[in-house]
């Protein structure tokens, strides 16, 4: 059970570090807030806009915020080269990566929980909106971004311009997940259409990439 | 390279570059002839299509380019798995070659598409399922090349890009489903009417000619790029061999003055 | 080869064996065909000027870097095997401790990474050996250079390695810290832990090193197995002789290749073409 305990310890350590340094969460929140505000200026935030493209607006804000969290996922180990300490240890790379994935997921989820009501107010979400469905979509969609993003965060960690490389790797591969989360959110916002197959697709994406990421964890955490 | 007992085994096992052989030239000539035949069939041989007229002829290059590009990416996926299993420099060389050549073919497809679409559909681009999927696959393999350029260490490049190759390929079927569902909700503005219905036998022949010609071209380009990579490895190994054996000969004072 | 050794079974697997280790950074050869072995419980002084490849060699042995060519075995297990990583600890100028966490929190996480069952006991034991008991509650960011070194040493000892690597451990330490670090190291050696120390300040360890490995431009230009007290002959003479190929004054002793009874003969046997005097 050392796999599970190492995963949990990694999550605990990340959350503790985040509480002490607050380097990711505050930046994420503020960043996403700015995106929402800019959108409302750029597109005349009114109810008709929200019914047309609300899902897209929401997810672009989440995506920007998520990128900060994912960049920090391994960037957090930069001071005094803590990642080298992990690489020198005999610990399971999959367990370490699973922990990093879970902590990124949690931080993104907390940010989204704060942003979602704000979005509903600022963009006049229609009263028919199905919030349970939107939260469910957000969970599956955030899982998709967190699992892939953590893996690519580790992959881009070897590069000199880590923060620049991460979105270049993450966004193309995540396109199907982005389509699914935007479409499902749109369905739940307007109450028109069917969302369940988008959720199934998202879930499939999540499972495939979680398994792939854990299987191939050694490749991105090996010694240079 | 003087055979020296002090050379690491890995250096001695590096794949030797192939000697220049006549069959390469022969192969290239056949490819060239096939391309000429394909061009002739596409522009002159095949009959002009009734509704789209002369514009339809670009299809003879447009469609095979996509198919051969996808084939190339499929080989990239296999080479990535091969690399992870064997860590062979040959696998990595094949992976780079197929990614770059596949990208070139897909670029042909993505450029000829709008050229055809403007006169026939009246628009350069539409977010039709097939177009979108092709564009996304193209973007994903660009990110594959970008990763190689951003990763400074030559030792890391093969490992990371093999992982990314697998991640990318796993996304293709999911992309396919997502885009199909997305686009069936909002049907494409212009629907291509029954392209495959009643294809003239001569048109079919022209398509086949171009397919084979592009396949041959892909094989030739991949082969060249692959060999270029093998030669690169081999030259690097030779250079390293010299640096290592110099050390063993005890040339400590006049060693390669890279750093003192 | 081990069969030839007089020491018998225990000596058969050395604490550390490097076979033709080379490392390239791009096209720069940081290490070239370095081969040597270090017996259990012995100490090796790693010497060389800046950029000679000392840190690279230590990081390779610690498993933080991969050798481009060649192999490293620790206690008979080849890197990057899990068993090898458990046997080695590296103290470098980076502490590998997160500055925002306390020393104890950092160590607890390392206990998890190394799968240590009774982490609190292991932390207490390691801290005692490193003389860092009073530091556990402090944040790493608050520590002075000397305290940080002690905390880092605790981390290195946490999983009870049989081989300890120290990269310039005396750099930027004041005299008192140097003395206490030396005391810790002597104690560790007495406990049977093999040590490999890279340093510029040779005089601190010269008198108690068993072996010397001198690197220049990534090459081992001399391997010396010197038993205990290297009486009568200063290290600089060895080095000078190795570079010039001439016998330094007061030599004679070094011209006998079999310098000691415990395996350095095999050490030289690994690489018969190495520059040797």
Considering the chains and any ligands shown, give keywords for the structure.
heterotrimer, B: 260 residues, mainly alpha, Four Helix Bundle (Hemerythrin (Met), subunit A), 0% strand, C: 277 residues, alpha/beta, Rossmann fold, six-stranded mixed beta sheet, four-stranded antiparallel beta sheet, 10 strands, disordered N terminus
Overview of this protein structure:
The complex is a heterotrimer of chains A (224), B (260) and C (277). Helices cover 82% and strands 0% of the residues of chain A. Chain A has 224 residues and is an all-alpha fold. Chain A has one domain. The two termini of chain A are 28 Å apart. The mean pLDDT of chain A is 90. With 260 residues, chain B is an all-alpha fold. Chain B has one domain (23-188, 200-237): Four Helix Bundle (Hemerythrin (Met), subunit A) (Up-down Bundle), CATH 1.20.120. In chain B, 73% of the residues lie in helices and 0% in strands. The two termini of chain B are 26 Å apart. Chain C has 277 residues and is of the alpha/beta class. Chain C has two domains: 2-87 and 161-269, P-loop containing nucleotide triphosphate hydrolases (Rossmann fold, 3-Layer(aba) Sandwich); 97-154, no CATH class. Chain C contains nine helices and ten strands. Chain C has helices at residues 9-12, 54-62, 82-86, 103-113, 119-130, 145-157, 175-190, 235-244, 264-269, and strands at residues 16-25, 28-38, 43-47, 69-74, 77-78, 88-91, 163-167, 194-198, 211-216, 219-225. In chain C, strand 1 (16-25) and strand 2 form a beta hairpin. Chain A binds chain B through residues 148, 151, 155-156, 158-161, 164-165, 168-169, 172-173, 175-177, 179-180, 183, 193, 197-198, 201, 204-205, 208-209, 212, 216, 219-220, 222, 224, and chain B through 84, 136, 139-140, 142-143, 146-147, 150-153, 155-156, 159-160, 162-164, 166-168, 170-171, 174-175, 177-179, 181-182, 185.
């Amino acid at each position: 059970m050392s796999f599970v305990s190492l995963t949990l310890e990694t999550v605990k350590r990340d959350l503790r570090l985040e509480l002490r340094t607050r380097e990711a969460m505050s930046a994420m929140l503020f960043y996403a807030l700015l995106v929402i505000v800019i959108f409302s200026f750029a597109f005349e935030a009114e109810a008709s806009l929200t019914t047309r493209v609300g899902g897209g607006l929401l997810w672009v804000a989440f995506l920007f915020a998520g990128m900060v969290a994912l960049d920090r996922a391994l960037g957090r180990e930069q001071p005094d080269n803590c990642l080298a300490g992990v690489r020198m240890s005999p610990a399971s790379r999959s367990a370490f990566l699973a922990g990093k994935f879970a902590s990124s997921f949690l931080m993104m989820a907390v940010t989204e929980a704060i942003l979602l009501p704000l979005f509903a107010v600022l963009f006049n979400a229609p009263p028919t909106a199905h919030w349970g469905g939107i939260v469910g979509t957000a969970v599956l969609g955030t899982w998709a971004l967190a699992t892939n993003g953590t893996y690519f965060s580790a992959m881009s960690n070897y590069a000199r311009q880590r923060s620049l490389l991460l979105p270049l790797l993450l966004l193309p591969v995540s396109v199907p997940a982005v389509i699914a989360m935007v479409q499902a959110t749109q369905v739940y916002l307007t109450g028109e259409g069917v969302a369940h197959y988008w959720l199934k697709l998202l879930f499939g994406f999540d499972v495939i990439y979680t398994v792939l990421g854990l299987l191939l964890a050694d490749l991105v955490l090996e010694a240079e | 390279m003087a055979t020296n007992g002090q050379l690491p085994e890995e250096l001695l096992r590096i794949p030797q570059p192939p000697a220049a052989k006549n069959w390469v030239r022969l192969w290239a000539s056949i490819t060239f002839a096939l391309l000429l035949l394909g061009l002739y069939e596409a522009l002159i041989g095949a009959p002009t299509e009734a509704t789209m007229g002369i514009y339809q002829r670009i299809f003879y290059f447009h469609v095979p380019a996509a198919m051969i590009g996808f084939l190339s990416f499929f080989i990239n996926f296999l080479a990535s798995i091969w690399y992870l299993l064997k860590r062979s420099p040959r696998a990595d060389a094949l992976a780079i070659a197929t990614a770059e050549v596949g990208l070139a073919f897909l670029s042909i497809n993505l450029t000829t598409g709008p050229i055809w679409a403007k006169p026939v559909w009246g628009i350069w681009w539409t977010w039709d399922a097939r177009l979108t999927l092709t564009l996304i696959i193209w973007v994903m393999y660009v990110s594959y090349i970008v990763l190689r350029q951003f990763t400074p260490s030559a030792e890391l490049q093969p490992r990371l890009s093999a992982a990314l190759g697998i991640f990318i390929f796993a996304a293709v079927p999911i992309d396919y489903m997502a885009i199909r569902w997305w686009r069936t909700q909002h049907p494409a503005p212009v629907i291509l009417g029954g392209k495959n219905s009643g294809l003239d036998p001569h048109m079919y022949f022209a398509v086949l000619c171009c397919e084979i010609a592009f396949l041959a071209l892909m094989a030739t380009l991949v082969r060249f790029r692959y060999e270029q990579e093998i030669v690169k490895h081999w030259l690097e190994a030779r250079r390293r061999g010299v640096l290592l054996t110099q050390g063993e000969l005890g040339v400590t004072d006049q060693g390669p003055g890279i750093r003192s | 080869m081990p069969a030839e050794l007089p020491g018998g079974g225990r000596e058969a697997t050395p604490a550390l064996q490097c076979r033709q280790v080379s490392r390239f950074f791009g096209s720069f050869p940081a290490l070239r065909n370095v081969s040597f072995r270090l017996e259990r419980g012995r100490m090796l002084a790693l010497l060389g000027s800046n950029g000679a490849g000392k840190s690279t060699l230590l990081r390779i042995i610690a498993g933080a870097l991969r050798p481009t060519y060649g192999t490293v075995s620790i206690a008979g297990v080849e890197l990057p095997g899990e068993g090898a990583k458990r046997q080695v600890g590296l103290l470098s100028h980076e502490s590998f401790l997160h500055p925002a966490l306390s020393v104890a929190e950092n160590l607890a996480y390392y206990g998890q990474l190394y799968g240590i069952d009774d982490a609190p006991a292991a932390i207490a034991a390691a801290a005692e050996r490193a003389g860092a008991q009073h530091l556990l509650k402090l944040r790493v960011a608050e520590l002075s250079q000397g305290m940080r070194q002690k905390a880092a040493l605790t981390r290195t000892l946490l999983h009870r390695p049989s081989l300890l690597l120290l990269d310039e451990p005396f750099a930027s330490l004041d005299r008192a810290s140097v003395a206490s670090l030396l005391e810790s190291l002597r104690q560790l050696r007495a406990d049977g832990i093999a040590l490999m120390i890279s340093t510029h300040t040779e005089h601190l360890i010269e008198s108690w090193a068993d072996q010397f490995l001198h690197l220049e431009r990534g090459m081992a230009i001399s391997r010396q197995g010197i038993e205990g007290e290297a009486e009568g002959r200063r290290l600089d003479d060895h080095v000078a002789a190795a570079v010039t190929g001439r016998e330094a004054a007061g030599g004679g002793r070094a011209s006998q290749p079999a310098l000691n009874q415990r395996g350095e003969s095999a050490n030289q046997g690994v690489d018969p073409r190495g520059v040797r005097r």
